[in-house]
Design a protein that fits this description.
The structure is a single chain. The chain is built from two helices and two strands, in the order E-E-H-H. With 138 residues, it is mainly alpha-helical. The chain has a two-stranded antiparallel sheet with strand order 1-2.
Length: 138
């Protein structure tokens, strides 16, 4: 492919226009591909309309059975998913508790120990204060 300079500047180049026959071949290819895809699209649309026309009366006839069955299936699936999620959460918590009790120091153990110490200290403070207010010796 040949390139020509524009306005005498050697740094600005452009592509020569393609021959007319090459442009016609590109056009014919594009029209053939686009036309065949358009025909396939029309056939798909026609098939969908025919299938929907045939299936609609069946949906109306069987809807008293299909709607409750769909609702029941959705509820059952939701139950299984929730059950699985709760099982994973329970296993995770039990695993964390086992590692904590056996002294393996799982993630978050420091925060738990700190909170336990704060609650214990606050309980002792409240016990001492209650003893002071009631006059009992603590």
């Amino acid at each position: 492919m040949a390139y020509k300079a524009i306005g005498g500047d050697e740094n600005q180049l452009y592509h020569n226009p393609q021959s007319r026959s090459y442009q016609m071949v590109k056009l014919a290819t594009a029209v053939a591909a686009g036309g065949s895809l358009l025909v396939l699209s029309g056939l798909t649309m026609a098939g969908t309309v025919v299938a929907l026309t045939i299936a609609t009366p069946l949906f109306v006839i069987f809807s008293p059975v299909l709607v409750p069955a769909t609702i029941a299936a959705a509820l059952i699936a939701t139950g299984f998913v929730a059950s699985g999620g709760f099982a994973v959460a329970a296993i995770t918590v039990l695993s964390w508790m086992y590692r904590y009790v056996t002294g393996k120091h799982p993630l978050g153990a420091d925060q738990l120990d700190q909170a336990r110490m704060m609650l214990s200290n606050k309980a002792w403070e409240m016990k001492d204060r209650a003893g002071q207010l009631t006059g009992a010796a603590a």
